[in-house]
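Collaborator request, handled under Task 6.
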Amino acid sequence: MIRALVIVVASLATFSGGALAQSVVAGDPHAGDPVGIVADPCPTHPNPTDGPGWDRWKLHMLTRDFGQLCRYAKQNAALIASGAKTRVVFMGDSITDNWIGADDTLFTNGVVDRGISGQTTPQMLVRFRADVLALKPRAVHIMAGTNDIAGNTGAATMETVQGNIETMAELARAHGIKVILASTPPAAAFRWSPAMKPAGQIIAFNAWLRAYAVKNGFTYVDYHAALAGPDGGMKPGYASDGVHPTPQGYAVMKPLALAAITKTLGRQ
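Structure tokens returned to the collaborator:
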């Protein structure tokens, strides 16, 4: 997960015709990148992992590519051009993003990983058309909520976060895509957002997710119950930092994911 993100207000540039809002802010190292409607909105820039470069990248992402549509743009185009059938898209944050690195055997036979580290539900909603609908999967596995609770893109009500999940699910259903809703995995603390005490909110959010899935005939997969210890955090050995699963943690999650896919799509 990335550290809590702070939304930066775009600076105003004054012209003879008046003040116009710009997508350029002081300190943006990529201020010369194209803006507006262009053929290629995804110039290549390094993605630092820490330090001042990381902060500059966050600034660029928040002001230029909030949903991070550029992350999978080339892979999506190649997948569509290949004509390969997509069975399931895994939409999520770093817990999904890291899964393919820990165990790539899940992501075969038309199962596609589209997780992006640090993302909140509004960011996932922004890229849902490009990273899910355009691939025309038979099902989508949505696992989210961790970073909303951590506050990565600021404050939101629980109802707003729930609404983002509802909108993604409704979009999928409108396009004939079956929905698998995954519980938010357990966490007792966030190292990048230490003031938060997330365990109770995660439990409440998962109770809503389960009820929403039942009401709408969606599949619900409960990773939380399999991973959580008595304090509402990860069991020992299941996470590297209390949030991100280790290979052992993913080994617990995998059969649950496969069972959810089978329940949703059958054994094809």
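The cover message to the collaborator said: "Residues 2-20 have pLDDT under 50 and may be disordered. The first helix runs from residue 51 to 64. Please let us know whether this matches your experimental observations."
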